[in-house]
Amino acid sequence: MQRIGRAIPTLQQIRQAAQGQLNQTPCLWQLQIGEALLKADKDVVCITATGDGKTLTFWLPLLFSEDGIVLVVTPLNQLGKQTEAQLGTSGVSCIAVESKTATPEKFKAIRSLEHRVVVANPELLMKDDGSFEALLRDPKFNSKLLAVVIDEAHCVSEWGGFRDEYRYIGRLRHLLPSSVPFYAASATMPPEILADVKKSLNLRTSNTFLMHRSNDRPNIHLVSRPFKYGQHTYSDLDFLVKDWKPGDASPPKFLIFFDSIKESEDAANHLRSLLPKEYQDKIKWFHAVMTPEFRDIEVGRFREADSWGYCATDSFGMGMDLSDILLIIQWKASTSYLKIWQRIGRAARDQSLEGTAIIFSETQYSDEKRAQKEATQQKRAETLKRKAEVASRSTGGAETANGQIEPTVRMDVEARRASYAPSVVAKIQKATKGGDRLHPVLDDMINARARGINCIRLPFTLAFENDKIGT
């Protein structure tokens, strides 16, 4: 399926072209992806850490084609605007199309091959009888396509349940020439997610180039911390600005992630109440209900350090080009471990910096609390005769006479990894029937010490198989 008549450049030639035209020097793995895309005989998958440089690989095929086009599918319109601005500084014409700007004039310009990069969200791209369908069927356009890039490809699996169009992107296979490779890139595609993404996108299973690197971020320090105060008070966040007064140094740039819009607003209002009135606008909320104009302005303020931090949902986009955020806080552990790892990855994208990520967890998820609860239930059910023989056991350890948790016998690495498998997790969650439904990866992280796990990174390392692939 390699395109006829196109000589494939060497890795050295790709490096030199990137240096000359993009003013960037690709690493070996980036060059290898560029080479695979230029060969165009395989689909491509890239799994590597946030901030590692996946985006550069998207543009490498453009360096060897005067009129070639790369189509990028992005989950968030804000990322499209960011791409448009970044490529503009390199002299590469890029257009980010969203529903509000999808005018006939813009599609005419795209059809006339005025832009080398076209960025769109899946809803616009897969709209029935939409402008993109006609565009992709047009040989004048599709013959120039060098690749279809699915950025943040884990969203195909993770978001496909509420953004149906993600599930349909694979249909583009039937509209495009077989010589157009699909390229799925993400920091968080463990085996089960990768398999789902491949299936949904109709990637050529036996003919896919896989670049699988560690997604660990060693320059980010992980901290697991149980809530000390009532969650509704947000007092666990007071350390960020408590006792701050004019003349003091600003707190480090921070993002606090929530799964609830209401919680993001309530937390922001709480933190603002701790500041002098004239400084309260330094902290705001950031979520999908805000207008695009507001979000654009606030990202600019954050970049220039006019704002200190935000109480945000995932609308503060994956892949945002903000390299100096030093503190990430995850509010509650009862969510997807993939989502948490993506959020953590917003910290210290400049690899020369060191960041911190704090994960606040609900107290009911600690083995000690579970043991105490189980012991109470057992004592109520047993007779006075057997009361002295009560042996309280928890899911992660045994309760001692003083109420503390003894470290669990160390689980074999592969046994622990196996406990994270979707089939095992599904059985556990079905058995709990809506109760203690924390994912085992996060459960092990929270209870690492009680379970004899030396490092709270280990559960993530095993789930993403970083120990198998090195760097």
Task: Outline the structure in words.
This protein is α/β, with parallel strands linked by helices and 471 residues long. The chain folds into 2 domains: 11-212, Rossmann fold; 220-361, Rossmann fold (3-Layer(aba) Sandwich). Helix content is 35%, strand content 14%. The protein has 20 helices and 13 strands. It has a 7-stranded parallel beta sheet with strand order 3-4-2-5-6-1-7. Strands 8-13-12-9-11-10 form a 6-stranded parallel beta sheet, with helices on both faces. Helix 1 crosses helix 2 (28-39). It starts with 10 loop residues before the first helix and ends with a helix. The model is unreliable at 391-409 (pLDDT under 50).
Concise account of the structure shown:
This protein has helices at 11-21, 28-39, 54-59, 77-88, 104-111, 122-125, 131-137, 139-142, 154-158, 165-168, 191-201, 261-273, 292-303, 337-344, 367-381, 413-418, 422-432, 440-446, 458-463, 466-469, and strands at residues 43-47, 69-73, 94-97, 117-120, 145-150, 182-186, 208-212, 220-226, 254-257, 283-286, 309-312, 327-331, 355-361.
What is the strand arrangement across the widest sheet?
3-4-2-5-6-1-7
Shape: globular
**Total separate domains:** 2
For the secondary structure, the number of strands is: 13
Largest sheet: 7 strands, parallel
Low-confidence stretches: 391-409
